[in-house]
Specification:
The complex is a heterodimer of chains A (427) and B (293).
Chain A lengths: L1 H19 L6 H6 L19 E8 L11 H16 L6 E8 L4 H14 L4 E5 L2 H13 L4 E4 L5 H4 L6 E3 L4 H15 L4 E7 L2 H13 L6 E8 L7 H9 L4 E5 L2 H13 L6 E4 L6 H7 L8 E4 L13 H13 L8 H19 L5 H8 L5 E2 L8 E2 L11 E8 L2 E10 H5 L6
Parallel strand pairs in A: 1-2, 1-3, 3-4, 4-5, 6-7, 6-8, 8-9
Antiparallel strand pairs in A: 10-13, 11-12, 13-14
Helix pairs in contact in A: 3-12, 3-13, 4-5, 7-8, 10-11
Chain B lengths: L1 H31 L6 H17 L4 H24 L7 H23 L14 E4 L2 E4 H23 L1 H11 L1 H6 L4 H27 L5 H16 L4 H21 L10 H13 L14
Antiparallel strand pairs in B: 1-2
Helix pairs in contact in B: 1-5, 1-6, 1-8, 1-9, 1-10, 2-3, 2-4, 2-8, 2-9, 3-8, 5-6, 5-8, 6-8, 9-10, 9-11
The chains are: A alpha/beta (427), B mainly alpha (293).
Amino acid sequence: MRVSAIGCTALLLLAVAACGGRDSGGETAAGGGTAAAGQCAGQQTTGITDTSIKLGGIYPLSGPASAYGDIPTGIKAYFDYVNAEQGGIDGRKVEFVVRDDGYSPPKAVEEARRLVEQEQVFALFQTLGTPSTTAVWDYTNQRKVPQVFVATGASQWGSNTEHPWTIGWQPDYVSEARVYAQYLKDEKPEAKVAALYQNDDFGKDLLGGFKKAIEGTGIQVVAEQSYEVADPTVDAQMGNLAESGADVFLNITTPKFGALALAADAKNTRWNPLHIVNNVAASRTVLEPVGFENVQGVMSATYYKDPNDPTWDDDAEMKLYKQKMQQYAAGKDPNIPYHAFGWAAASSFHKAMDAAACPTREGLRDSVRNLDNVEVPMLLPGITMKTGPDDGFPIESMQLMEFKGERWELIGEVIDTRAQFGPPTTE
Amino acid sequence: MAGFLQQIVTGLGAGAIYASLALALVLIYQFTGIVNFAQGELAMFSTYVAWTLVAAGMSFWLALVITLVVSFVGGMLIERVVIRPVEGAPELTIVIVTVGLFIFVNAAAGWIWTFLIKDFPNPFPGGALELGAVTVNFSTLGVLGVVALVMGLLYLLFQHTKIGLGMRAVATNPASARLVGIRVGWTLALGWGLAATVGAVSGVLVAPLLFLEPNMMAGVLIYAFAAATLGGFDSPVGAVVGGLVVGVAETLAGAYVGFIGSDLKIGVPLLIILAVLLLRPQGLFGRAAVERA
């Protein structure tokens, strides 16, 4: 009886999910779309007028990855500021509609359909997470809706040629892995690396990129352990890695597991490798619960300005950001790096719209694929957005950083992986 | 060999965490005869209450006492407000209500406290006991100790008190229990209150190890179900033994069974649930239900 009750519950949940995925047909496409005239004749102008532009974003505001839910706050603050003080993007007030997918791909598809078919958005500006973005991109590309600057670093956004309407923004995981490989080649050419990675596209992308980048060098991966996002702890994995005797630990995780791995490493006094934590888990908000005294000397890499870093105290963009966050996102802490991330992405979108030849969906698609060293003030000095016919990766440079005291300190120079390795490949 | 022993210790540490929540599951099952899917989330919510008090400057132990009282009252309130309207409904209905409660409590915690992870003060010393080549953290020993204590208390409650007798009667047959003068409504509310209290203990125990965030208990709950199923849903001793067995089995399988590795580790508790349900549905320490034909 009890077993059947639980079984029925599962079935019911499945049935609800199935009903939610119903197909409402393509009528809205024919009925709702609008087209431009003049030199942009025939191009889609759905969701954009002379005075407005409507964007949709999908983020995990609930569920396991909801720490990323802070990103749209930074985006909204930027658009509110531009709307109020600059009359919008080229005279167009931005309306940014945010939906919650709970980091669940089926929900992301549902929300994408709702945004495109009911809200009639001009473009999806950011879908978050590799699984959700992968679930949505066939749909957006069939409907020819731009899905720009997605908030995930999977290398497929740049390397895939069948989805021209989708493009990434942040450095892809392969580029990031190359930055770490480059550092080890210079500093620890005989490094023995132990890696903990999330068992999904994200973790495999970064680890694969790393292995590819160290081919032919004296660096070896001597142990690797994976975890599932449903695992309560990673203690067992960390125990296994410690036994490998590696002198470098590569922590390829999302925030919560990053913190668990950092804590496990700090607790184990017998194993003291150089700890490299990947960018997505390197937020100060992840390190703080572990205890700053436990994460001294941990390394990572970044590409945008950290609001906690006093280096930027007199930086014009950082001052503007902090002031406008207070004004348009009152009560939110501007020091949370996800807010700055959102701000940087929104300002990148602004630049891409400015550079577009036509204020149309096609115009945006072509603009983001033809960025010519576009400067975004929130990115680190020396890092610009560049794309071209053979290069679908807007940002491919990063700078290493080391945790000292209570914050990250940038070290060395910006590493341009494009120059060192060529466009990212995982094969 | 040292590696093997260390794996066992790691497994026992994980198992103690599973056992602590499994005790709350067993408790509510004893009182009400239902499986509460929201138990982990209620524990997480209680932990946030404790965290808020500590963050406000209260000492850990005072905060703990207040949290346990709040959890007890909160658990009873939930029974009155959410469960009472569907009392006597088919099991499926109540199970669905607890699933709804799971989602609601999770979202509410995220709304109130955000989803950023928080550190939680550890009541146990931070060091570790070095036994030869094997390291045993004091926090692991502390969790095991508290779990053993709660287990003992529950055993006494179930077997040697009138309340325990009454609640077993209610869980077995509410109608007959009412006829012999047991206040069924209060017994059920008491069950929810006590289960929420034991859950709060579990949450406070695991939060320093897993970091506090709204999804802290979601992963633990699956393993706690496996532990309770293995040990028997009506036995506190079984829940603890089940939790330890699941923790050790999962860790050893992950480390030494090549094709399982870390990738399939999470499948181990599900296999255990399946095997137990097939071979010994009442669990290792449980009593088989006898029904009149």
